[in-house]
């Protein structure tokens, strides 16, 4: 069962979203629980207990705005799994939202076709989070969740898997044999590095900074490809 949260000042928006979301899941014969908040303070107090997969969040919500709530979820609760969909009449917040890694930004009024399309893509993303990377070392098979991999590197004919918890795993292989089979959130930034864009903290033309302030240089030959990939990822993930 999926859990979905809605936070908006406008009761009519909340009501329409809730009705359309429940209808969407009913048509798919899937269960869904929806909770609604009308102010950000109560949402921040209760969101961890409800722990939804998806949050529809008005940017200009009363008390603390949506940017504050998004940072609270990502930085204080340390929850980067939740798909945050910002909603608003105001479209001028794009740069402020980058570091929150929202899934999407929907402009009010939100048509049911747009809502359903967004939900379908998020559910596909949720499924991909459960996927695992398989490899073999010393004739024994191993696996690690893609969502737990921060980046891949290569050294001495080995591929090194760098996990989010700081641990590493390795096996004999080549990075170039990986990239075409990895989920869309992974991008090659050089001959020796493939990074998971999910964990990019900041970036500039020649370097990315991952969580834990890990710095990785972007090869000149990869910069245009990286910029295209990061903007595409930001638009859907």
Provide a quick synopsis of the model.
This protein is an alpha/beta fold. It contains six helices and 15 strands. A five-stranded parallel sheet has the order 2-1-3-4-5, sandwiched between helices.
Describe the model.
The strands form 4 sheets. The protein has a 5-stranded parallel β-sheet, sandwiched between helices. Strands 10-9-8-12-11 form a 5-stranded antiparallel β-sheet, covered by helices on one side. It is α/β, with parallel strands linked by helices. The protein is globular and about 60 Å long. Helix 1 packs across helix 5 and helix 2 runs parallel beside helix 3. The protein is built from 6 helices and 15 strands. Strand 11 and strand 12 form a beta hairpin. Helix content is 32%, strand content 33%. It folds into 2 domains: 128 residues, Response regulator (Rossmann fold), CATH 3.40.50; 105 residues, LytTr DNA-binding domain (OB fold (Dihydrolipoamide Acetyltransferase, E2P)). The chain starts with a strand and ends with a helix.
Keywords:
single chain; 237 residues; alpha/beta; Rossmann fold; OB fold (Dihydrolipoamide Acetyltransferase, E2P); 2 domains; 5-stranded parallel β-sheet
The H/E string reads: EHEHEHEHEHEEEEEEEEEEH
Q: If you consult CATH, what is the topology of the largest domain?
A: Rossmann fold
Which overall shape is indicated by the principal axes computed on the Cα atoms? Answer: globular
Helix percent reads 25-40%
Strand elements, count: 15
Strand content: 25-35%
- The rounded Rg comes to 19 Å
Major beta sheet summary: 5 strands, parallel
**Distance between the ends:** 21 Å
**Name given to the CATH architecture of the largest domain:** 3-Layer(aba) Sandwich
């Amino acid at each position: 069962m999926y859990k979905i949260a809605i936070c908006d000042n406008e009761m009519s928006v909340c009501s329409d979203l809730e009705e359309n979301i429940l209808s969407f899941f009913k048509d798919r014969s899937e269960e869904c629980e929806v909770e609604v908040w009308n102010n950000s303070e109560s949402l921040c107090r209760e969101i961890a207990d409800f722990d939804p997969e998806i949050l529809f969040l008005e940017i200009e919500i009363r008390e603390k705005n949506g940017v504050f709530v998004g940072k609270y979820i990502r930085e204080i609760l340390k929850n980067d799994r939740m798909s945050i969909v910002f909603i608003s009449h105001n479209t001028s917040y794009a740069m402020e939202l980058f570091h929150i890694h929202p899934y999407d930004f929907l402009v009010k009024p939100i048509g049911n076709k747009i809502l359903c399309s967004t939900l379908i893509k998020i559910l596909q993303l949720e499924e991909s989070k459960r996927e695992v990377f398989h490899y073999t070392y010393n004739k024994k098979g191993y696996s690690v969740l893609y969502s737990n991999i921060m980046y891949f590197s290569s050294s001495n004919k080995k591929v090194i898997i760098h996990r989010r918890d700081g641990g590493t795993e390795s096996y004999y292989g080549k990075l170039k044999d990986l990239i075409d089979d990895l989920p869309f959130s992974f991008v090659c930034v050089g001959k020796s590095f493939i990074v998971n864009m999910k964990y990019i903290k900041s970036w500039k033309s020649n370097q990315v900074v991952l969580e834990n302030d890990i710095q990785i240089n972007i090869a000149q030959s990869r910069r245009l490809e990286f910029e295209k990939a990061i903007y595409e990822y930001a638009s859907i993930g």
